[in-house]
Amino acid sequence: MRLPVRLTNVQQTLLLTLYLRALESRSTTPVLGDPMAERLVACLDYDFTRFDSKRGDPLVALRALSMDRQVARFCARHPDAVVVHLACGLDSRAWRVDPPATVQWYDVDYPEVVELRRALYPERPGYRSVAADVTEPDWLEGLPGDRPTMVVAEGLVMYLPDAEVERLVTRVVGHFHEGEVMFDVFSRVGATVMRCQPSFRATGATIRSVLPDRRVVERWSPRLRFIAERPVLGEPEVVSLPRKTRVFYTVLRSIPALRGSLRTLHYAFSDDNTHS
Ligand SMILES: C[S@@+](CC[C@H](N)C(=O)[O-])C[C@H]1O[C@@H](n2cnc3c(N)ncnc32)[C@H](O)[C@@H]1O
Q1: 133-151: per-residue pLDDT in tens?
Q2: Which DSSP letter does residue 52 get?
Q3: Looking at the record's lineage, which domain of life comes first (predicted)?
Q4: pLDDT, tens digit (0-9, with 9 covering 90-100), for 81-119
Q5: Is the dihedral of CA 92, 98, 100, 101 positive or negative?
Q6: Span 3-275 CATH architecture
Q7: Where are the domains of the chain?
Q8: Which protein residues touch ligand 1 with a CB less than 6 Å away?
């Protein structure tokens, strides 16, 4: 029997990203490959055809791949790391990155989403899911603050008001002793394009935050130091996409106003940064 899905608008966006990863995974030459997404789509009692686009859009898979790479690099460098995966949705990042059990991994999302996750995912050593609204302060209290920590949020901050994004980032940077924080943002053009997509409109969600300038984030805390800004269209795997999509993305990324439509922002945080 398939599991019923009862999610509100912003929560429903996780079904769109899940479906796009499943479609990409089913393609003949996937760049990400996410068999868990394929399996979950088959397990849910939900009409995914409302998101249909004939070939799917591999941008979500490229974004996931880019973030997986950074999380895997962090875990390889810090076998005692804590990974805090905010707004995890039904994403299988912990399974794709597959860190050793010495890494403590926390997947965080709304209670309705975490309940669904718990019904679908097996347990794994070092892994816990946390049911919380990330804009509330208390969920952080149970998480260890004294280990190198990677905080990753994919497809989250665009749904929060700007002031909440700042509060969230300063809160996590204040709780954990040292580490890195990474999240993706739309440019104004990217947000406009997204708002016009029928598949996105089908979720009923609203895009609230656009961060036009990476330097804005550094001003939120003296503990933050910029590491990198990565346009998703700039990922090296674009060259491995099917021909039509590859040509389309190559044209898009050659246009400066479009190249950064969707990009990840990546920062380090520690007390050391306050002295430099
Ligand atoms: C676009 S989906 C992304 C899900 C997942 N990261 C992925 O890539 O498939 C947005 C996610 O943000 C979560 N979310 C939005 N606002 C949140 C909040 N205030 N607290 C916890 N989760 C939130 C939603 O429940 C949803 O799972």
Answers
A1: 999 989 999 999 999 999 9
A2: -
A3: Bacteria
A4: 999 999 999 999 999 999 999 999 999 999 999 999 999
A5: positive
A6: 3-Layer(aba) Sandwich (3.40)
A7: 3-275
A8: 10-11, 13-14, 17-18, 87-89, 91, 109-110, 113, 133-135, 154-156, 159
